[in-house]
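Could you join me in thinking about how sequence relates to backbone shape in a protein? Would you write everything just below, so we can both look at the same thing?
***
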Amino acid sequence: MIRLLVGFLVLVINNLYRNRPYPRFYVLETVARVPYFAYMSVLHLYETLGWWRRADWLKIHFAESWNELHHLLIMESLGGNDQWIDRFIARHTALVYYWIIVVVYTLNPRAAYHFMELVEEHAYHSYDDFSRESEAELKAQPAPQVAINYYRDGDLYMFDEFQTGVKPESRRPAIDNLYDVFINIRNDEREHVKTMSACQRTDAKAVINSPHNPASVLLNSQ
């Protein structure tokens, strides 16, 4: 079922946006945020009912959604959401997937994390292919200010937080042009894949902590 959901999403995005990369990435990033919202919603419910409290997981998933938000802001700055039909498709698809993931996460958290691992893996390869195919064009364009603010000049605490396989403050991306921006987004997606893979471990509850937690164990799936 998870592979069917991801396959349908990828099929729709790839066919509708074959020659429109920025709207394609805008839709992808809009949808990519919502599973993290779903995870946090269910975790907050568990905490409210007194079943399970895990602040580190909430922080990690919020950091993942914060990272995806900035990917989305970058795509908007590049004109990815200029047409109403793209906004309509992105938002309605995201709404549907939010409720699907809420149900899946409630019934089978590992399956919900596997869903996101596959989505992030697709995103990684999409950005990797686009960066290689458009390298010269991208290097000739400046980095959007929103990317500079996020990757270089902003508070990077949350940037470190979602990367459970990387030591905090060890990854500080260069942002000299638009090519650097897409390479960094691609690398972000790779870190999301690692974190989602780690969340599926049988001992995940015991070992996954905030990267800033002194007791944190760095988890690397690759």
Notes: The chain has a mean pLDDT of 89. The CA atoms of residues 2 and 115 lie 6 Å apart. The two ends are 25 Å apart (CA to CA). The chain has one domain: 2-200.
